[in-house]
UniProtKB/TrEMBL annotation:
Protein's organism: Bifidobacterium tibiigranuli
Domain of life, source organism: Bacteria
Protein name as annotated: Allophanate hydrolase
Alphabetical keyword list: ATP-binding, Hydrolase, Nucleotide-binding
Gene3D superfamilies, per database record: 3.30.1360.40, Cyclophilin-like
Pfam families in UniProt: CT_A_B, CT_C_D
Domain (Carboxyltransferase): residue spans on this chain: 1-200, 270-553
Stretches assigned to coiled coil: none
Gene Ontology MF, one: hydrolase activity
Length: 580
């Protein structure tokens, strides 16, 4: 068992990859300790099981990394696999998948034997990832080890039952995918009307059974249900529907390039749902504080500026984040420019317009009292990857405000300086968890090069590019494992992807380093064309005393700083490889 750093507030517990049940067994034991509340493990924020690892998230101000490690080692030494108590989920399957005959041939059995073995196998949900409600099921029949399709399908229907590697699973929604399809189930894997929405969760036992219904007999009703209840942005009221009597809020005249509700996000990785939330939480909190709301109240995240809203009734609003010209056009023809981050009153019929950004990428518009926004799994954040939560705003939408006072509160704040296209921004990272998969040259290149934010970036992640790709020393495939916001994942082409708020819950490429929280907020404001340079901190030091490797006191100029950073990163990288 190894403990690998995942930034300053998470650990990756790596277990023997020859036993797929190891991670699940340890997950059970930790959950039991949490229920007892008698150890530091009861203070963990979240546990994300995967194939051979557990991702453990914690608050470093509440519990130390060392105490968590000691508690897990102690628990591991006492662990008993006989204590598992789990639900059993029965899933009916119509075994007529497109790949059934080909899979049977690969395994050297008949199609009928494939069905019999799949039904007879005892399956356990090891972890959930890829999509909300998509459970990776491990079985007790060694027959099932099936390669993925050489060319993934662009669209796999919701309810499709598939095989890939040693896993079986059910697609909860229509999506692309490379699993071998052997059947279809009318059972809903994800239903936001239920609590919890995911039918299968880590640790559940799953039994597949043969359904004799012909697919055409259920296709209509299932298709209707899947469309209505599979993961998808919450439906909006019709634009033609009249606003409620005496409703107060904002009419969306123009949403800009992209606008969506965000708050502090959700904790639902065990159901395959990423945290989501504001890309720049500091600016979200500032806008709400200026408006007199709790810091995490849902606000509108506006990307790229260019938005315009009209007040319906009296509304106190506040804007924070990227600097842009802000103009209030009064219904009476008056004009007022807003020069600072502050709260201001819009009378009925007044409009507020956000112009082209001077710097940064995202702004947050809060209203006093908060918006009326639908929550999914405890959050009103719109998740652009999983497509759950409120949908992106469109022209013509009406955004109702909750009842509250109508007085301006909070103190105006000057605009912070944020990145612009072509400017260089330094982001602080902690090496790991998989930096030992890369060469020493790759570590030098990670922190020695300037990386460009490419146009293929979004709320899922920033795609970065530089002249020298990061070279791997370990060429084998990585089993899927939990990821965090701020993780720098390195695909096969060596050009990193920096995960932002809507990143996948699990990933299959090695993560070389993870951003610290302050840098993560800054990363959410990086526009296309901005330049990034990374600097490292010592990962083994406590978070409150961690020393920046290339701190400005070490050298008088940039070349001296980066030489020191190279040496320090090499030393830590070498030490971590020795430990590995």
């Amino acid at each position: 068992m190894r403990f690998l750093n995942v930034g300053t507030s998470a650990l990756l517990v790596e277990l023997d990859d020859r036993d797929a049940h190891d991670a699940m067994s340890l997950f059970d034991a930790i959950v039991q300790q949490q229920r007892n509340g008698d150890s530091s493990l009861s203070q963990l924020i979240e546990i994300v099981p995967a194939a051979c690892t557990l991702l453990v998230r914690f608050d470093p101000l509440e519990v130390s990394r060392r105490s968590i490690e000691c508690a897990i080692r102690d628990l591991r030494s006492k662990e008993s696999r006989a204590t598992r108590v789990s639900r059993t989920i029965e899933v009916p399957v119509i075994y007529d998948g497109e790949d059934s005959d080909a899979v049977a041939a690969m395994l050297g059995i008949s199609s009928q034997q494939l069905i019999e073995r799949h039904v007879a196998c005892s399956w356990t949900a090891a972890f959930v990832g890829f999509a909300p409600g998509f459970a990776y099921l491990t079985g007790d029949d060694p027959l099932f080890n099936v390669p993925r399709r050489q060319e993934p399908r662009l669209r796999v229907p919701a309810g499709s039952v598939g095989l890939a590697g040693a896993y079986s699973g059910v697609y909860p929604r229509a999506s692309s995918g490379g699993w071998q399809l052997i059947g279809f189930t009318p059972a809903l894997m994800w239903d936001e009307q239920h609590d919890p929405p995911a039918l299968i969760q880590p640790g559940d036992s799953v039994r597949f059974c043969v359904s004799h219904e012909h697919i055409s007999a259920v296709n209509g009703s299932v298709a209707e249900q899947q469309t209505r209840q599979s993961p998808g942005f919450a439906a909006k009221p019709s634009k033609s529907a009249p606003a409620p009597i005496q409703a107060r809020g904002l009419h969306v005249d123009r949403p800009g390039a992209f606008a969506i509700f965000e708050d502090d996000g959700r904790i639902a990785a065990n159901m395959g749902v990423t945290a989501s939330g504001a890309a720049d939480p500091a600016s979200l909190h500032r806008s709400n504080i200026l408006a007199g709301n709790p810091a995490g109240t849902p606000a509108i995240e506006i990307t790229g500026g260019g938005a315009r809203f009209t007040a319906v009734g009296e509304v106190v609003v506040a804007l924070a984040g990227a600097q842009a010209p802000i103009a209030v056009h009064g219904k009476d023809g008056s004009y007022t420019g807003i020069a600072r981050q502050e709260a201001f009153l819009l009378n009925d019929g007044d409009t507020v317009e956000l112009g082209v950004l001077y710097d940064g990428l995202r702004d947050y518009l809060a209203v006093q009292g908060g918006f009326v926004a639908d929550e999914v799994i405890g959050s009103a954040s719109g998740d652009t990857m999983s497509h759950i939560g409120p949908a992106p705003l469109c022209a013509g939408d009406f955004l109702a405000c909750a009842d509250g006072p109508h007085t301006v509160t909070g103190h105006a704040v000057d605009w912070s300086r944020l990145p612009v296209r072509g400017s260089l921004t330094e982001l602080t990272v902690v090496l790991g968890p998989r930096d030992d998969w890369f060469t020493t040259q790759a570590i030098d290149d990670l922190i020695g090069q300037s990386w460009t934010v490419t146009p293929r970036s979004d709320r899922v992640g920033l795609r970065l590019s530089a002249a020298r790709p990061l070279e791997r020393v370990v060429a084998r495939e990585l089993n899927s494992e939990g990821t965090v916001t701020g993780a720098i994942e390195v695909p096969s082409n060596g050009q990193p992807v920096l995960f932002l708020r809507d990143h996948p819950v699990t990933g299959g490429y090695p993560v070389i380093a993870v951003l610290d929280p302050e840098s993560l907020a800054l990363a959410g404001q990086l526009p296309t064309g901005a330049l990034v340079r990374f600097r490292t901190v010592y990962s083994d030091a406590p978070a409150e005393t961690a020393q920046v490797v290339n701190d400005k006191n070490y050298g008088e100029n940039d070349s001296e700083k980066h030489d020191i950073s190279y040496d320090s990163a090499r030393n830590e990288h070498a030490l971590r490889m020795q430990r590995g």
